[in-house]
Amino acid sequence: MRASIEFGKNLFDIKWRLSALVVGFWLAAPFCHGISRAQGSDTAQSRKIEFLNADEAYFDENASPRVLRIRGRVVLRHQDVMVFCDSAWRYMDVNAFTGFGRVHLQQGDSLDAYGDTLRYDGDGRLAYLAGRVRVQDRGTRLQAPRLTYNLNTRTAWYADSAITQSGRSRISSRQGYYEARRRRMSFKGNVRIHNPEYTILSDTVHYDLDREISYFHGPTTILGDSLEIRCTYGWHDSRNEINSFSGGAVVIHKTRELRGDSLFYDRQKGYGRARGSVMLRDTAEKAVVYGRMAESFEDRGYSYVTDSLTLVMAAEDDSLFLSSDTLHVWDDPVCDKILVAAHGVRFFLRDLQGVCDSLVYITADSLMQLYRKPVLWNEQNQLSAQFISVVLQRGRISRFDLYEQSFIVSQEDSSRFNQLSSILMTGHFRDNALDKVEARGVAVSVYYPREDSGDFAGANKARGSDIVIWLRDKKVQRIRFTDNPSGTLYPVDKIPPEEARLQGFRWLPELRPKNRSDIYKSR
Description:
Layout: E1 4-6, H1 14-32, E2 50-53, E3 56-60, E4 67-78, E5 81-91, E6 96-107, E7 111-121, E8 126-137, E9 140-150, E10 155-158, E11 162-166, E12 169-173, E13 175-179, E14 184-195, E15 198-208, E16 213-224, E17 227-237, E18 242-253, E19 256-266, E20 271-282, E21 287-297, E22 302-314, E23 319-332, E24 336-349, E25 352-362, E26 367-371, E27 375-378, E28 381-384, E29 387-393, E30 396-411, E31 417-430, E32 433-447, E33 459-472, E34 475-482, E35 486-490, H2 497-500
Parallel strand pairs: 1-3
Antiparallel strand pairs: 2-4, 3-4, 4-5, 5-6, 6-7, 7-8, 8-9, 9-10, 9-11, 10-13, 11-12, 12-14, 13-14, 14-15, 15-16, 16-17, 17-18, 18-19, 19-20, 20-21, 21-22, 22-23, 23-24, 24-25, 25-26, 25-27, 26-29, 27-28, 28-30, 29-30, 30-31, 31-32, 32-33, 33-34, 33-35
């Protein structure tokens, strides 16, 4: 098709020419102002725009800047850039043009940009696209009302909202910046990333298009299937399903909530790590764990929390407060969960306190087991043994078992102590108070009975294979001996010192946690 170029007044109507001239000034002014007129310059930066094809054209010498108006299958070239459009105004005094209708800008073999209008500055190599703008670059598609593109740096930016489709992610934001060479995008203002598996809401996001990694800056929320994550900073690798969050990060999954100064999670490996002010809450178990470091291994069903650890387990009208060096948690198909508090354990319940080196708690049975020098306190009673087992019901103690070197002691006055020792002891509780004690296997007791007046009736030391003691209102009501018991009742002040203390006697009030804050006292 031959392009027709005329320079007279007979080709087009004079009225059309004058109106076009006015519009041309209006479109050219915003980007022509301040552009140096590269008269005769032939550098690579300011090489002239080439006019390759059109169905017809008209040149107006009277226009300022002078304008060549081109229509019909317009093709222009500037260095490595090709432009196709329905019509264009080529400004002869500046290295620039404006394209109209079905604009298509092509740079290299990968980037294509489309729009309704294009203002192009050849010296600055800047393209201003407007009206249904669409940019496609190697699988990434950006749509915006208007966009500016620097062809030298191959960067584009917009400030009037846009939508980007990259891989499985659809991204919308109020402002954005695209680096074609680095394949990176930056989004700011009401950023929303939608993926089939999650949705990200943030203020500022930097996105690596090829690796599908999102970097968050500012308050961010990630929503997934029964999952919610909140953080201030972090990154998310959607391809490898790896996440790292910081700035008061929170992860909520079904009945569990995890908080920390920094969180890391690899979904494919089933590995998670939390550092800083760590808090793990399980609403189903009514338990909260605090610490400074935590790790989770999903394939092993195992996790732990360590460093300044505190465990709080709520009951109907009380809560268990426990501290130790580390808390280990195993998921078990039979026992539900097994919790192991290791080293330096101290815990406080209103009616039960204890210390030991290690503690095991089985959630299915509400069974607590204490290892290595365990000591329990209930009311005025101190209980110790080589190993102690405690059964809880709705947070209250129901029963205890003391194994090997079992010892119960309670203080009567500053120098007198009721004592009971045996190989094995079992205690039963009623209304959270000790109701009955069964001692088996060479049981020995020292007991100070009182008269109705409250005065001591004497000091009774007894021995038998089995002893059963019933209590009421925290006082011994009845003692039964079986299998040939023997005993001696001494006057209260005449009991020999060696008889007043049973072998293995220890009175340890300084170790007892007095309140929930006292669990942090060093042993």
